[in-house]
């Protein structure tokens, strides 16, 4: 056999010997090589002869095939012939034979082809159909990934993988990489590149398609491997006896065979030499025939069965190996199931599937008959099945990894040639694993067919009835004794093979120090070389076990390759390495190989191989479920707790290497389970104290805390901190709760001195754990659980800190509403929560979402604390008022709107209170006008002494009732409306505003707000005066013939004409530059004047008179609108005649006409009322006779008469005035006649 590794792994070339001609008895061997035959001559040396050297006839002749040798090497007793198909060794120490004794060695090419299912006896199709049988019907979708996993594992295993070959093969699929790029790939990177080739397949999810693709890919790979690694010559080290092959890019060394390998490969004559069995000839024959049956079972299942079984052990979660064995036995009994046959039809076609099914049935019949006959013959030869099982048991003991006790230190053993040792060990482990598995399948098959009958047709055409009949005791012995023994052996060799073929895990770059290391900063050469090897295919886990156990960096530079190891030394070194993996170096006689798994796991953990450590310890944990192994592990220094602890550490570490989602959650859950199991094992405190630091254990002195509860308290606390370090809050919370359960018992068992040395009281310890529980539940958004942790905390200081943190986090996450809607029972915490909310509100920006003052308002409203709710929301409005002063136009409007909402909420809250108590305290900030924008802290109240001569300041109002809040609401509304039109006015505090505010509101056309402010803050004559001012301004806006005179006030400024001469012109310096032309024409002003005059003349009856006087004074030619004239006419005293009335009466309108020279309107108005008096109905005549029933403004009439005369005299509108005078004369004459007649009637 050959072990194969690249020249990259040999950093120092061995000193190799060339052609040797060693003298033996004064003679030397010589070679004569031609294309077909090798002749060996003897060259003798005779010192006394005249001719000192003489050539004797051909000593030996070795015939070759047509293909000549690649290289030939001659040693003292052997000749080595290298050919393309293999290596031939010819022994020269046979004097009685011309040809001698020849041995054939297969080259590495055969091994690579076998592993990749390229040889005839390793059919890849068997892999697929066995995989179908191994998986249940519900897992058919996993077959394609399973098949790919088998190929990937074998393709990247040492001895098969070659960077140059794989790079060339990927290049055949148009995936090209440079040497540096390809050399930087880790195992995972290579797998991704290979699997990405499936994207070019049309149906890459079909198992058959996947298998066909892998067959083509592996065929190319094997061809490229043979070309790139073609053998060039032999090398032989005569000093050590090493034999090697020099290839184009690699080197292969020849190794010897293990004892069992002689038997497996058919060298049964070696049984007596190696001491197999008891030495009894009968036992040897029984074993020989049993091994023949084992080989038949293996051939029937195919070599793919071992690949499927091995891969099932690597699967996560593991496929049950018992199920795999059961399904394989079912195939041996009945062949493939009908479902497999139907799949073959759909995948291969009906004809091909039918032929394959016939072939399978024919092979199954032959196998069944042959195996029945063979087993029956074995039983007959042994006389009982018990004897057969004894031979099997002796053979199984020989398969167990031997314990080798050596006095050499590990450095002397492992520093000779690590690569050769690792590859030799992996090859032997593969053979042992498959041999043990074959024996397991034979025994399982025997127990399954026990009691069955089989008709066998013999050569004489007679039918024979055969039966394999094991007794109940024999079956029990197989199932309870031999099969568990084989399972343990299989597991042992599987672990060894796993270490030898599984690539190491790449180091994870997690922090800045690791990044410095990757940049080769602050790092030594050995460590950089070590990290560079990790994660590569040529650096399996076994290298870490070889070199990693000696120093953390691996000390690769200390390896010595001055001499190549001989074939026998490789076997011995491999045996020592295997013994160390399984049994360790303690030399103790223990039957439990798992006892050394802790040490192996620690080495793997030290170098960051968390997956491998987890896998190793998981296998041990699986066996710990069986009572025998469990009790043994309990007895071996309490290693079970250490195993559980390390498993938990491995699982936690893996969560930090890119795991996400359900896979990460599953790892965390398993870690929690293992940590709890570690703490529950008796004596775990002592065993865990012996762990090194890389095992994740912080050393704690338990000498003063002997109780189990104290140990668990500290251990749970440490695990809690571990999970907290990696932000696994849910798991950390579980251990915080577990630690909390141990506090009372732990302190109850402590002495007073121990309690003092502990440094904390029971209350503080509980408070600390409850605070941790609060933190973890809060991180998980479990707010109810977090609140329960707060109220359960016995430490008041810790409780207060947690409560504050709780409120802050609720604010940050937008979940603080749960404090206000009654979701949490705040019994005994209302004042504290309110105080914290207020503390948060006073120190928060008003833009915080949700608003803290609104939350306080909701908090108090929910508890029917109306006055407190009003106080907090009013405080919010006060802060908004302070901030609104410095805001720009747009933001200020939003701030004022928010302030209005706050004032409205405060008013609504106080209206729910009894009127006698509907008030709130005025905040301190509200009493000062010239205060800063917003003081972060409340100002101190400093009382200054006043001299008797000082004038006492006006007393500040200390309370606010509903009326004052409504006043502020009105003024704030006015400020808000002004801000919308970009007019600046600021509310300066409580009290009545100045008239300037009314002017600004009117100028901005905010009439409703102007009237609201007037009616709210002015009474009596002041109210009438302000109303007149407003209506004068509105009336002036209705006039189109003159500009509106500016109102007086410090906020007043000049504006352009409200009415323009052109409809296209726009007043640019008005309040709103976007005012439409229609609004500037004054048409809407008349409507506004009519609406508001009709609405507010009840507050001041003379308002129509003021409006009419304003209009007439503004434009002497204007005609008063009909609705305004109707107000005068309709406003006369009921039951009277003439022009009498209150306020705006017809008489007052008549006077206005006269005062402003509207003689025609005045005359027509007088004529109208005089004629109405004359046309009174007969029923109203008696009313006209009452005293003062008829009244006209006679003085004004006389004045009108005089004015008409003066106009005629002056020549102004003479004709019109004469007509009016004549009309007035007639009306007055008629009126006098009516009055005279009325007086006469009264006197009579």
From TrEMBL:
**Occurrences of domain NUP160 helical (ranges):** 279-458
Q: What is its main location?
A: nucleus
Keywords on this record? Answer: Nucleus, Transport
Keyword check for Chloroplast, yes or no.
no
Q: Does the keyword DNA-binding apply?
A: no
One Pfam family named in its UniProt record: Beta-prop_Nup120_160
Q: Where is the Nucleoporin Nup120/160 beta-propeller domain?
A: 70-261
The record places domain NUP160 middle TPR at 708-912
By what name is this protein known?
A: Nuclear pore complex protein NUP160
- Which organism's genome codes for this protein? Penstemon davidsonii
């Amino acid at each position: 056999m050959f072990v194969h590794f690249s020249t990259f792994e040999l950093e120092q070339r061995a000193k190799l010997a060339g052609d040797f001609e060693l003298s033996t008895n004064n003679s030397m061997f010589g070679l004569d090589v031609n294309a077909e035959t090798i002749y060996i001559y003897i060259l003798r040396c005779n010192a006394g002869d005249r001719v000192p050297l003489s050539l004797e006839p051909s000593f030996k002749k070795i015939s070759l095939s047509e293909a000549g040798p690649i290289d030939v090497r001659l040693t003292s007793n052997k000749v080595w012939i290298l050919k393309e198909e293999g290596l031939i060794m010819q022994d020269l120490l046979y004097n009685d034979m011309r040809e001698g004794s020849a041995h054939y060695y297969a080259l590495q090419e055969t091994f690579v082809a076998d592993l990749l299912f390229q040889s005839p006896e390793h059919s890849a199709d068997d892999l697929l159909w066995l995989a179908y049988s191994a998986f249940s019907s519900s897992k058919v979708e996993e077959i394609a990934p399973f098949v790919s996993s088998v190929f990937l594992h074998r393709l990247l295993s040492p001895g098969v993988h070659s960077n140059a070959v794989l790079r060339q093969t990927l290049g055949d699929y148009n995936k090209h990489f440079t040497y540096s790029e390809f050399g930087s790939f880790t195992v995972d990177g290579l797998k991704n590149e290979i699997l990405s080739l499936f994207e070019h397949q049309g149906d890459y999810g079909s198992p058959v398609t996947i298998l066909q693709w892998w067959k083509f890919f592996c065929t190319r790979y094997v061809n490229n491997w043979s070309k790139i690694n073609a053998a060039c010559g032999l090398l032989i080290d005569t000093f050590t006896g090493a034999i090697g092959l020099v290839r184009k890019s690699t080197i292969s060394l020849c190794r010897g065979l293990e004892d069992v390998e002689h038997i497996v490969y058919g060298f049964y004559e070696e049984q007596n030499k190696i001491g197999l069995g008891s030495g009894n000839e009968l036992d040897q024959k029984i074993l020989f025939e049993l091994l023949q049956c084992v080989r038949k079972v293996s051939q029937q299942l195919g070599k793919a069965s071992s690949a499927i079984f091995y891969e099932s052990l690597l699967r996560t979660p593991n496929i049950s190996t018992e199920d795999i064995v059961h399904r394989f036995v079912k195939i041996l009994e009945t062949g493939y199931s009908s479902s497999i046959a139907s799949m073959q039809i759909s995948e291969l076609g009906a004809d091909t599937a039918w032929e394959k099914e016939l072939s399978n049935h024919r092979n199954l019949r032959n196998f069944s008959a042959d195996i029945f006959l063979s087993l029956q013959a074995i039983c007959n030869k042994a006389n009982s099945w018990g004897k057969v099982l004894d031979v099997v048991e002796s053979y199984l003991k020989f398969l167990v990894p031997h314990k080798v006790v050596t006095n050499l230190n590990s450095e002397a053993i492992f520093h000779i040639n690590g690569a050769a040792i690792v590859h030799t060990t992996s090859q032997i482990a593969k053979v042992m694993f498959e041999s043990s598995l074959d024996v397991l399948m034979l025994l399982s098959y025997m127990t399954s067919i026990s009691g069955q009958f089989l008709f066998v047709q013999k050569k004489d055409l007679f039918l024979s009835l055969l039966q394999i009949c094991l007794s109940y005791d024999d079956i029990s012995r197989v199932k309870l004794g031999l099969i568990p023994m084989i399972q343990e052996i299989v597991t042992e060799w599987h672990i060894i093979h796993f270490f030898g073929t599984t690539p190491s895990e790449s180091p994870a770059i997690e922090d800045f120090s690791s990044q410095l290391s990757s940049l080769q900063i602050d790092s030594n050469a050995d460590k950089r070389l070590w990290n560079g090897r990790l994660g590569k295919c040529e650096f399996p886990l076994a290298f870490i076990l070889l070199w990693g156990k000696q120093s953390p960096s691996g000390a690769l530079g200390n390896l010595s390759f001055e001499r190549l190891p001989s074939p026998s030394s490789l076997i011995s070194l491999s045996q020592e390495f295997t013994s160390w993996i399984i049994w360790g170096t303690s030399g103790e006689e223990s039957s439990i190989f798992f006892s050394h798994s802790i040490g192996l796991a620690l080495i793997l953990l030290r170098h960051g191989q968390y997956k491998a450590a987890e896998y190793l310890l998981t296998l041990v944990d699986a066996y710990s479920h069986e009572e025998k192994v469990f009790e043994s592990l309990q007895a071996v220094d309490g290693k079970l707790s250490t195993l559980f602890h390390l498993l938990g550490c491995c699982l936690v570490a893996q969560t930090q290497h890119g795991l996400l989602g359900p896979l990460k959650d599953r790892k965390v859950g398993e870690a929690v389970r293992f940590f709890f199991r570690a703490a529950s094992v008796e004596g775990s405190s002592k065993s865990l104290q012996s762990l090194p630091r890389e095992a994740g254990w912080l050393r704690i002195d338990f000498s003063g805390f002997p109780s189990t509860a104290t140990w668990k308290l500290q251990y749970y606390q440490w695990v809690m901190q571990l999970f907290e370090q990696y932000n696994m809050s849910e798991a950390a919370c579980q251990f915080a709760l577990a630690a909390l359960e141990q506090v009372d018992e732990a302190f109850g068992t402590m002495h007073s001195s121990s309690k003092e040395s502990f440094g904390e009281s029971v209350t503080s310890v509980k408070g600390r754990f409850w605070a941790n529980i609060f933190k973890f539940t809060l991180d998980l958004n479990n707010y109810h659980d977090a609140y329960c942790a707060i109220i359960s905390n016995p430490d008041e200081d810790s409780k207060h800190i947690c409560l504050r943190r709780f409120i802050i986090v609720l604010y940050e996450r937008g979940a603080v509403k749960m404090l206000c809607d009654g979701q949490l029972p705040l019994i005994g915490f209302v004042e504290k929560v309110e105080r914290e909310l207020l503390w948060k509100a006073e120190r928060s920006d008003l833009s915080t979402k949700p608003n803290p003052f609104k939350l306080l308002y909701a908090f108090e409203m929910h508890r029917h604390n109306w006055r407190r709710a009003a106080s907090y929301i009013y405080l919010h409005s006060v802060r908004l008022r302070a901030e609104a002063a410095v805001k720009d136009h747009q933001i200020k409007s939003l701030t004022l709107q928010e302030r209005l909402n706050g004032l409205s909420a405060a008013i609504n809250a106080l209206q729910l209170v009894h009127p006698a108590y509907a008030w709130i305290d005025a905040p301190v900030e509200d009493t000062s006008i010239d205060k800063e924008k917003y003081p972060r802290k409340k100002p101190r109240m400093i009382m200054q002494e006043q001299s008797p001569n000082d004038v006492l300041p006006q007393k500040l109002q200390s309370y606010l009732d509903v009326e004052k809040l409504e006043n502020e609401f009105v003024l704030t509304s006015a400020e808000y409306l002004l801000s919308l039109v970009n007019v600046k006015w600021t509310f300066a505090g409580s009290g009545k505003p100045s008239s300037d505010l009314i002017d600004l509101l009117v100028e901005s056309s905010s009439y409703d707000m102007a009237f609201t402010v007037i009616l709210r803050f002015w009474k009596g004559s002041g109210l009438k005066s302000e109303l007149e001012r407003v209506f004068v301004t509105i009336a002036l806006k209705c006039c189109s013939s003159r500009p509106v005179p500016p109102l007086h006030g410090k906020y007043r400024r000049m504006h352009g004409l409200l009415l323009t001469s052109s409809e296209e012109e726009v007043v640019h310096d008005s309040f709103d530059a976007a005012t439409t032309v229609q609004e500037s024409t004054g048409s809407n002003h008349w409507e506004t004047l009519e609406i508001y005059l009709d609405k507010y003349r009840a507050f001041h009856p003379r308002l129509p008179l003021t409006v009419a006087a304003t209009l007439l004074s503004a434009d002497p030619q204007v005609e008063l609108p009909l609705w305004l004239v109707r107000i005068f006419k309709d406003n006369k005293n009921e039951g009277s005649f003439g022009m009498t009335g209150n306020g705006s009466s017809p008489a007052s309108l008549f006077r206005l006409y006269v005062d402003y020279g509207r003689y025609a309107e005045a005359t027509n108005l007088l004529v109208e009322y005089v004629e109405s008096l004359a046309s009174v109905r007969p029923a109203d005549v008696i009313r006209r006779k009452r005293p003062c029933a008829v009244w006209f403004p006679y003085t004004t009439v006389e004045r009108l008469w005089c004015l008409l005369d003066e106009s005629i005299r002056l020549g102004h509108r003479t004709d019109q005035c004469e007509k009016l005078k004549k009309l007035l004369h007639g009306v007055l004459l008629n009126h006098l006649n009516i009055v005279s007649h009325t007086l006469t009637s009264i006197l009579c």
